[in-house]
């Protein structure tokens, strides 16, 4: 079987690893058949990255779908980039066990990128002063597994600027990626410049606002003007600013549509009009109170 003609462009991480700019989000993809269908559509459309997490409960299904489907596209393990995340329940002393569990669920020898999913610990109050110690312990476990080659790159998700500064001051291995909510209503300027200064790749999640931004009047107007869909406009707005994206869809047609964002450009005016929608609005969880 010949490889697909298109595959997502990549960005270089601070580890030297190449990470595809386009990845398939898999939150809420939990039925094995849905995962298989979505992975098939994604590989066919040129996606080479997949974003899972222990809490999504789909690591095993994702690993299985990839083993079954990679040969269909003339691909092997090394052609895809798998991300997973440490669940908040495993933050702290259970981090090593949690990461090894992700590896065994995915049934992989290595995970390309492993993130601390959330700065807090499940079961502790957000303001609990044990949170920083647990984060540090988790990071040390991830560093150890990185040293063993089991986690090719390590990073964090949902960290605030304060959490990032704390990590940068204490780490032996700096984070490769910060994955956070990012879309026109939440532009995260402080985190973006912090990542830029420290060589951390800033990666967007919920680029479509969980679907809710697809009916925003400005997004609709820009889409109409450039003859693209609202989803493509939102994804192009991010990738044109050099930011990797992880759109989630369970629908093969939308999975393909979301990949067709590398063959057109938005004007500077359109980028600015969309960025002007920033109002600090979150569709997902807010980490700002986590000690
Ligand atoms: N680190 C974290 O804490 C965190 C948090 C949230 C998300 N994430 C990651 O980021 C990924 C994406 O974020 P998300 O799942 O919150 O939401 P999203 O990608 O912003 O939006 C997904 C929603 O949009 C719909 N959709 C997708 N493409 C579409 C299109 N072209 N036209 C119309 N509707 C479309 C999907 O429905 P259908 O499936 O029916 O197409 C789904 O309801 C997640 O799956 C996950 O991998 C990480």
Automatic annotation (TrEMBL):
Which residues of this UniProt protein bind substrate?
A: 117
Pfam families cross-referenced by the UniProt entry = Aldo_ket_red
- The superkingdom of the source organism is Eukaryota
Q: Which residues form the NADP-dependent oxidoreductase domain?
A: 22-277
Q: InterPro entries from the entry?
A: AKR, Aldo/ket_reductase_CS, NAD(P)_OxRdtase_dom_sf, NADP_OxRdtase_dom
Site entry: Lowers pKa of active site Tyr: 85
Q: What is this protein called?
A: Zgc:101765
Species of origin reads Cyprinodon variegatus
* Lineage of source species: Eukaryota, Metazoa, Chordata, Craniata, Vertebrata
């Amino acid at each position: 079987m010949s490889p697909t003609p298109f595959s997502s462009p990549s960005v270089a991480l601070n580890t030297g690893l190449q990470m595809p700019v386009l990845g398939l989000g898999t939150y809420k993809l939990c039925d094995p058949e849905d995962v298989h269908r979505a992975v098939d559509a994604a590989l066919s459309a040129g996606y080479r990255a997949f974003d899972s997490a222990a809490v999504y409960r789909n690591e095993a299904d994702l690993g299985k779908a990839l083993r079954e489907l990679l040969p269909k596209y003339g691909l092997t393990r090394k052609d895809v980039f798998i991300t997973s995340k440490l669940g908040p329940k495993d933050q702290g002393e259970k981090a090593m066990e949690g990461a090894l569990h992700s590896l065994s669920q995915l049934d992989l020898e290595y995970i390309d990128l492993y993130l601390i999913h959330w700065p807090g610990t499940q079961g502790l109050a957000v303001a609990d002063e044990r949170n920083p110690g647990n984060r540090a312990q988790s990071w040390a476990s991830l560093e150890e597994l990185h040293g063993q080659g089991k986690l090719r790159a390590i990073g964090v998700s949902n960290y605030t600027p304060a959490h990032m500064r704390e990590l940068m001051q204490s780490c032996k291995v700096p984070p490769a990626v910060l994955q956070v909510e990012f879309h026109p209503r939440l532009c995260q300027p402080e985190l973006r410049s912090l990542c830029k200064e420290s060589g951390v790749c800033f990666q967007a999640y919920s680029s479509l606002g969980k679907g809710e931004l697809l009916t925003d009047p400005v997004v609709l107007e820009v889409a109409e003007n450039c003859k693209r869909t609202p989803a493509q406009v939102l994804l192009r707005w991010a990738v044109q600013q050099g930011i990797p994206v992880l759109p989630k869809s369970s629908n093969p047609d939308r999975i393909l549509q979301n990949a067709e964002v590398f063959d057109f450009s938005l004007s500077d005016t359109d980028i600015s009009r969309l960025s002007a929608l920033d109002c600090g609005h979150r569709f997902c969880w807010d980490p700002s109170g986590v000690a």
